[in-house]
Design brief:
48% of the residues lie in helices and 11% in strands. The chain is built from 16 helices and eight strands. The longest helix is centred in the middle third of the chain and has 23 residues, at 226-248. The model is unreliable at 1-12 (pLDDT under 50).
Length: 389
C-alpha cells in the first residue's frame, strides 16, 4: 500500500475514540480446568457455588477435574444443576435464595454461555436486596457482585469474557440481555478438549451464533474501519472452515481451539472498538422471541432470523451486503450453508404458524425502535418475520 492511502481511507472510515477495558483473566489450553482450585484459593476463597447445566459437565470430564481441584485446595462447594439453554430467572432466584442461607465467596460456572449468564445473574442478585428481575430490567443499578471464576465447556456467546447476561422470564414473556461493568468474570478457563463431546447440533448452533456476533458488526450500517472489516472477514472464513471440520471430526483440536477462541473474541468488545455503534443486534432480538416461545436454541433462532433481517435492511443500505457477497458469500449461499449444516432457515421448520407472526412481532416490538443499519418499527419487524416464514 502506498504512503497516504491508508490514512486517507481512515479519514473516510474513521476509528472513533474508544475506551476498552476487560478485567477477565483467560487461561486457554489443554488440562487447565485442573487449575481452577488453585486460582480460587489464590483470592482467599474458602467456599463456592458451582453452577452447571445437565450431563455435559460430567460427560466432558469437566466436573471431575473441577471438583478434584476444589477438594485438593480444601474449598467447600455447593451445587446448582439444571441450567437450560435459554436460562430461566426461576433457577437464578432459587440459587440466590440458597445463598441467603449458605453464603459463598465465589460463583463458579462450569458449562457454556447459558451457565455463565446464570452465574453472573446469581452473582449480582446475591448482593442485591430485592428481586433479580429488577436488575435485569434496569429498575435498579448493579452496584456489587460476587466474583465469577469459571470453566467453559461450550463456546458460542463470549459470556466468559464479556459483561453481558441474558435471562428468560416465562411469566412476563420476556427474554432480556442486561449489562454492567461488574458482570465481567474474574477468570475464565477455556480448554477446547472439554468440548469434544458436544453434540453436533450444539457445535453448529454455537458456530452460527459466533458468526452472528461478527456479522452484527459487519452489518452495523455506519462506516466501518477497513481494519475491522478485514478482521470480520478472517473470522467468518475461519468459522466456515472450522464448523464442517468439527462436524466431520469433533476431536480435531486445532479446529476446536480456533472455534473456541473466535467465539471469545467475537463478542468481548474487540470487534467493536472505534465503531459509532457497537453493532446492530436486531437479529438477536428477533431470535430471542423465537427462543422464548418455541424453546429452540439461540443458534437455531439466529440461522432463521439473521438472513431474513439482512435481506430486509439491505434494501435501505446495500453497501455491507455488496461487500459481504464479494468477499464471503451471497445471501442465498449463506442460507444454503446453514441448511447444509442441519440448521433451520425458515420459521415453518420450527412449527411456527402463519397466524403466530403477529404475536412474535408484538413481543419483539416491545424493544422498538431498534437497529442501526435501518431503524426498525413494528411494521418492519412484521416484514422480516414474513420473509423468514
Amino acid at each position: 500500500m502506498k504512503g497516504g492511502t491508508c490514512a486517507g481511507f481512515l479519514r473516510e472510515r474513521m476509528i472513533n475514540n474508544f475506551t476498552w477495558y476487560i478485567p477477565t483473566m483467560v487461561m486457554f489450553g489443554k488440562g487447565l480446568a485442573q487449575k481452577i482450585g488453585d486460582q480460587i484459593a489464590s483470592v482467599g476463597a474458602k467456599k463456592i457455588m458451582l453452577i452447571m447445566g445437565g450431563q455435559s459437565a460430567y460427560k466432558s470430564g469437566a466436573y471431575e477435574q473441577v471438583s478434584q481441584s476444589l477438594k485438593k485446595n480444601r474449598i467447600e462447594f455447593i451445587e446448582i444443576v439444571g441450567v437450560k439453554s435459554n436460562p430461566h430467572v426461576e433457577l437464578v432466584r432459587e440459587a440466590i435464595a440458597r445463598l441467603a442461607v449458605t453464603p459463598v465467596d465465589v460463583i463458579v460456572p462450569v458449562g457454556g454461555g447459558s451457565v455463565f449468564d446464570t452465574a453472573k445473574a446469581v452473582a449480582a442478585g446475591a448482593k442485591y436486596n430485592g428481586d433479580i428481575w429488577d436488575l435485569v430490567k434496569g429498575k435498579s443499578p448493579i452496584t456489587k457482585t460476587l466474583p465469577v471464576m469459571g470453566v467453559l465447556t461450550a463456546s458460542a456467546t463470549s459470556s466468559e469474557m464479556n459483561n453481558i447476561a441474558v435471562l428468560t422470564n416465562h411469566k412476563t414473556e420476556e427474554k432480556i440481555s442486561f449489562t454492567s461493568p461488574l458482570l465481567y468474570p474474574k477468570l475464565s478457563i477455556i480448554d477446547p478438549e472439554l468440548q469434544y463431546t458436544l453434540p453436533e447440533r450444539q457445535t453448529v448452533a454455537g458456530g452460527i451464533d459466533i458468526m452472528a456476533h461478527v456479522m452484527e458488526r459487519y452489518f452495523e450500517g455506519n462506516e466501518v474501519p477497513e481494519l475491522l472489516f478485514e478482521q470480520y472477514e478472517v473470522y467468518l472464513r475461519s468459522m466456515l472452515r472450522c464448523i464442517p471440520e468439527l462436524r466431520a471430526n469433533p476431536r480435531n483440536y486445532d479446529a476446536r481451539a480456533e472455534y473456541a477462541w473466535i467465539a471469545t473474541l467475537s463478542h468481548n468488545g474487540s470487534l467493536s472498538y472505534g465503531l459509532k455503534n457497537r453493532g446492530d443486534f436486531s437479529s438477536h432480538k428477533l431470535g430471542h422471541a423465537l427462543s422464548l416461545f418455541y424453546d429452540i436454541s439461540h443458534g437455531d433462532s439466529i440461522s432463521i432470523m439473521m438472513p431474513s433481517w439482512i435481506e430486509y435492511v439491505s434494501k435501505f443500505n446495500p453497501v455491507p451486503l455488496e461487500r459481504f457477497t464479494k468477499n464471503i458469500m451471497g445471501l442465498d449461499e449463506l442460507r444454503s450453508t446453514f441448511r447444509s449444516w442441519g440448521a433451520p432457515i425458515t420459521l415453518r421448520e420450527i412449527k411456527v404458524r402463519e397466524n403466530d407472526i403477529e404475536r412474535i412481532a408484538d413481543n419483539v416490538a416491545k424493544l422498538a425502535p431498534m437497529g442501526t443499519i435501518k431503524t426498525l418499527e413494528r411494521e418492519d419487524i412484521i416484514e422480516i418475520i414474513k420473509i423468514a416464514w
